[in-house]
């Protein structure tokens, strides 16, 4: 008598032995080289963990249970099998997949390659691949990505670039990149962004500025930049803001003036 966990269930089988039935819930067991041994040993489950299914979830569950077989699927015709296999094999087995035709496969590779190999994927046509590269590339090599055509990659670079090289991104055409730079530049270097065309960038500068630069930004045309500068400007520059047209700026200036007089 067969154990209850075997597939197909007893109600769906004839009196034939499992080797003769060869049909699973999705018809994928027929012709499968792992049938019936893997079914009988619970190394696969039709509809849940199956290497022949066109389902990433089922393929992943199969390989999670049988990682030693992942090497066999690195050249599979189905991109999802290759991508999932690349997660389970030894790292040195995925080098050849750096140029895989499918970007999802290359994304997996970019998350697993040794850091010193990543630079070879810095020009990948897929943004997500380059994002992985930018997030993991050793700092000395990051400078090679500062002209990437996608601003998200440049913003990632700006978050990781050594402070001494951030000035190279102060003229980046994308506001979001310059905002990251403004948040990371050393305070003594913030003057490079004090005249930025975007008030959001200037506000970040004002929040971090040294007293002299903060005083200059009290004259900014945008009220939220002036407001950000109030906290860092020398007290003697704040009196004119007591009559600022914006109530939040007035209140902030008066609060600091009151503290000074207390």
Summarize the structure in words.
The structure is a single chain. With 262 residues, this protein is an all-alpha fold. Helices cover 41% and strands 0% of the residues. It contains 12 helices and no strands. The chain has helices spanning 18-21, 37-40, 56-65, 79-88, 103-112, 127-136, 151-160, 175-184, 199-208, 211-217, 223-230, 247-261. Residues 1-24 have low confidence and may be disordered.
Secondary structure: elements and pairs:
Blueprint: H1 18-21, H2 37-40, H3 56-65, H4 79-88, H5 103-112, H6 127-136, H7 151-160, H8 175-184, H9 199-208, H10 211-217, H11 223-230, H12 247-261
What does this entry show, briefly?
Helices cover 41% and strands 0% of the residues.
In what range is the share of β-strand residues? under 5%
- Provide a count of the helices: 12
Calculate Rg over CA atoms: 30 Å
Give the tally of β-strands.
0
Order of helices and strands: HHHHHHHHHHHH
Keywords summarizing the entry:
single chain; 262 residues; mainly alpha
